């Protein structure tokens, strides 16, 4: 079942996702850190640490949004990070941030769709994506295109929400994400649907072994899953 941000509107998932992120872009960073109590920052750090031994020089950050994962990737001392996203609003916020922090020469932010990346085959040393794959219209197509632009032997790192399975975290998290999070999200972002879409899309999304099975099917090698914070999120790594 495809979970759409705006159930009462027309348009493909991709169009609706872009519209939703355009609508919440100004509040996105604040809500991210507030609703996760800052844990999202630690998750991104851990995701990027998976590439420490690889020392990638050219990194692609898919679904870069406002660029927080791209900024974290600078810790690997790459020559360049290219961030792509389908939401102009998120990219605008990201570009402002890069300007403010003086990262414009290291991080390039451009319009780009994960399912039709405008890069040649085998270009990047590493491809990363945080909280993006759940929003893809066609998950396998997006992952396959990320694989295409990755160099043979290069690593992909995916950070995405998953679902805690054990008592009492399963129950506590379910209450938080289905009741508390949509309410705060709605009031702060002024978007009635965005923070209802979030838990709904997480519930439908494959995680753990199911996500690894998709990566394996696509031909990725050495696939691993690292659950984070009682399984609220997971990091997946895969080699081309
Ligand atoms: C939850 S945000 C994550 C942003 C950022 N990576 C972070 O860690 O905060 C998800 C982003 O995915 C983008 N997105 C969704 N589908 C996409 C696609 N097919 N191609 C590129 N970006 C996409 C959205 O526009 C949005 O900016």
Automatic annotation (TrEMBL):
The keyword Hydrolase does not apply. It catalyses: a 2-demethylmenaquinol + S-adenosyl-L-methionine = a menaquinol + S-adenosyl-L-homocysteine + H(+). Its EC number is 2.1.1.163. Pfam families: Ubie_methyltran. Keywords: Menaquinone biosynthesis, Methyltransferase, S-adenosyl-L-methionine, Transferase. PROSITE patterns: SAM_MT_UBIE, UBIE_1, UBIE_2. S-adenosyl-L-methionine binds at residues 66, 85, 113-114. SUPFAM superfamilies: S-adenosyl-L-methionine-dependent methyltransferases. GO terms for biological process: methylation. GO terms for molecular function: 2-methoxy-6-polyprenyl-1,4-benzoquinol methyltransferase activity; demethylmenaquinone methyltransferase activity. Pathway: Quinol/quinone metabolism; menaquinone biosynthesis; menaquinol from 1,4-dihydroxy-2-naphthoate: step 2/2. HAMAP family: MenG_UbiE_methyltr. PANTHER family: 2-METHOXY-6-POLYPRENYL-1,4-BENZOQUINOL METHYLASE, MITOCHONDRIAL, METHYLTRANSFERASE. Belongs to the class I-like SAM-binding methyltransferase superfamily. MenG/UbiE family. Methyltransferase required for the conversion of demethylmenaquinol (DMKH2) to menaquinol (MKH2). NCBIfam families: MenG_MenH_UbiE (TIGR01934), PRK00216.1-5 (NF001244). This is Demethylmenaquinone methyltransferase.
